[in-house]
Amino acid sequence: MRRVLPALLSLDCVDKIHISSRREAVDISIPENRRGEFFFGYDKALRMFSGDLVYISLPNSLHYEWVRRTLQSGFHVIVDKPAFLNWGEASSNLLLAKRKNLCLAEATVWPFHPQVEAVQRKFSELRSEPRLIQAVFSFPPLSAENFRNNTKLGGGSFYDLLSYAVTPGRVFFNDTPTTLSIEILSKCSKSDIDTSFALNAIYPRGRVFQGFFGFRTEYKNTLLLLGQGLSVTLEPAFTFTNSLSAVLGARIGSEGVNIDYKPADCFAVFFRSVIRSVLAGEWACWSDTLQRDAVVMRRAAEVAQEHL
């Protein structure tokens, strides 16, 4: 809730914020005029909630069940990434959302940061496009109690970080890969859980994605995009702080240049976009995007399966 709650509170289209937890006492500060009800237990929340849209952020392995139950209860759903751990879970809930005529969106929010649009616009101005994307999203080891270190909770670097390896190709290439190769690079000696992986993907017309992801190194969070006449690095790329500069360093030809943009909270931009879609009754794009990513993730999981 550290990033979600401030984003929701910044939106005029959000009237009340209700909280549900399996803990009886949750210390979350919400202004009184925006504070909804507190529900002890998710079942109770689904029975008594009177709103329209539910945001689900739980250990990865619990997303499938509670998305399904929330859709069955008649609510639109935003689910934290990774929305689901396999194609069966994704396709089942996508079909349910379609049958119930409800929105189902995955909260992969990094593409909604203004720096992404600024980079896309600069490539367009130069009549160019990215030919190579290189990504690194890696950070120090997590505490033993973190659910990402528990295979039963859908942990491991591959399942937890795969969406960051899949989505750059959709965002900047607007395409799906023709070939994928994946290597699980390291595992925890105690739990045997995977702690880092590399993904390489070839896209139509000779475009390439290369990425390293995990939680066993110093912190690094970057995207390099290279095309004819333009090279630009997004750092940070996938997660952000409020102090992020509103200038990107780039190279056009042999000269260093700055790409300016108006800063914004990507969580707020994402939530506003979903809510506007719901209010307009036009939310099919969110299921389409979730399905598009899930198809590539299924292919990646099939390639990686022998190593997991």
Strand order of the largest sheet: 7-8-9-6-10-11-12-13
User: Which CATH architecture of the largest domain?
Assistant: 2-Layer Sandwich
Main sheet overview: 8 strands, mixed
Topology as H/E string? HEEHEHEHEHEHEEEEEEEHH
Structural class: alpha/beta
The CATH superfamily of the largest domain is Dihydrodipicolinate Reductase, domain 2
Give the helix proportion (percent range): 25-40%
CATH topology label of the largest domain: Dihydrodipicolinate Reductase, domain 2
The backbone outline, from C-alpha atoms, is globular
- In total, the number of strands is 13
- DSSP helix count? 8
| Domain count | 2
Q: In percent, how much strand structure appears in the residues?
A: 25-35%
Task: Explain what you see.
It is globular and about 60 Å long. The protein has 2 domains: 125 residues, Rossmann fold (3-Layer(aba) Sandwich), CATH 3.40.50; 150 residues, 2-Layer Sandwich (Dihydrodipicolinate Reductase, domain 2), CATH 3.30.360.10. A hairpin with a 6-residue loop joins strand 7 and strand 8. It is built from 8 helices and 13 strands. It is of the alpha/beta class and 308 residues long. The mean pLDDT is 93. The longest helix has 21 residues. The strands form 3 sheets. It has an 8-stranded mixed sheet with strand order 7-8-9-6-10-11-12-13, with helices on one face.
